[in-house]
Amino acid sequence: MKRIGILTSGGDAPGMNACIRAVVRNVLDNGMESIGIKRGYTGLIEGDMVALDRKSVANVIHRGGTMLETSRCPEFTTPEGRAKAIKALKEAEIDGLVLLGGDGTFRGGALLANECSVSISGVPTTIDNDVYGTDYTVGFDTAVNTALEAIDRIRDTALSHERLFFVEVMGHHTGFIALESGIAGGAEETITPETGNTDDLWTRLRESFEHGKKSAIVVVAEGDQPGHTFAIAQEAKDKLKIESRVCILGHVQRGGSPTAHDRVLASNLGSAAVSALLKGKSGYMVGQVKNEIVYTALAHTWGKKKALSTRLEELASLLSA
Ligand code: ADP
């Protein structure tokens, strides 16, 4: 193996740059060349590439976003689009490819692995943590900490004004960000797509307000309907006769300097993705489960569902007031 390409695709996540740095440095340490592919699959189709040396990844470990830029690329979902990508890989003489992204990126990667001889390795980078085969994805910890900072600030206002607040956090179809930021932020309630209905919630909130509670924070996962928290606040008004405020955190959760946890995870997985290619492994995502590197076939990363931790769900319920 002589030349390894790297691209970042789908939603950006804090820690992508730390991961790119680790990939490039492991590639170079093994006497190979490293090629950065710009703007995800869009740049791959267009052959938009740049050679990366040790210096080109200096001073990026602390930066959010992705120095290679990213994109959503509908053309790549078609056989014709992928044929263009395969041609570009051949022309650039790339024989190994590291993909940084989420389940969508790996869907595309699995198809590509079947359609050409380039070896492919994936690294899970998404704030949502919704990828099977790793305890945590790169960027999740930073997003939880960003949400937590907002929750802490909102608590100051909730206490001062004796108010009920609903804070909507990201997480795609899952409640990972909501559950962890809810526990860390001492949320009175947490609503996730996994837990579903809100019937018991109104009973519990009514009882706690009747017992003298004057303010509360309910963390809500956006699920597949960003902004649906306004409807939940309206339900609170109808059912509890309580005025509330809604705060949608939105894209502030995507950017920012990665936490130490995300930088270490990104560095570890980025380096492991290159080592996997050198060991002859292709078509796998590298993840970390119980502190060990594990390999999961790309098709399983979206084909199997990662569940919320039952223990954390019980803990959130136990600690809520
Ligand atoms: P993420 O990787 O963060 O989940 P997306 O779901 O937007 O982000 O996927 C990133 C890109 O991966 C898409 O823009 C598309 O180019 C490619 N992709 C997604 N799903 C598929 C699919 N089913 N087949 C081929 N390519 C796909």
List the helices and strands and how they pair.
Layout: E1 3-8, H1 16-29, E2 33-37, H2 40-46, E3 49-51, H3 79-91, E4 96-101, H4 103-115, E5 119-124, H5 140-161, E6 164-169, H6 176-184, E7 189-191, H7 199-210, E8 216-221, H8 229-240, E9 244-248, H9 260-278, E10 284-289, E11 292-297, H10 298-303, H11 310-319
Parallel strand pairs: 1-2, 1-4, 4-5, 5-10, 6-8, 6-9, 7-8
Antiparallel strand pairs: 2-3, 10-11
The chain binds adenosine-5'-diphosphate.
Adenosine-5'-diphosphate (ADP) binds near residues 76, 101, 102 and 104.
Rg for CA atoms: 21 Å
Average pLDDT: 96
By CATH, the architecture of the largest domain is named 3-Layer(aba) Sandwich
Termini separation comes to 57 Å
- Counted up, domains total 2
Largest sheet: 7 strands, mixed
- Give the strand order, joined by hyphens, for the main sheet: 3-2-1-4-5-10-11
> What shape does the CA trace take?
elongated
**Proportion of residues in helical segments:** 40-55%
CATH fold topology of the largest domain:
Rossmann fold
Low-confidence runs (pLDDT<50, min 5 residues)? none
- Would you report the number of β strands? 11
What fraction strand? 15-25%
Q: Helices and strands: which structural class?
A: alpha/beta
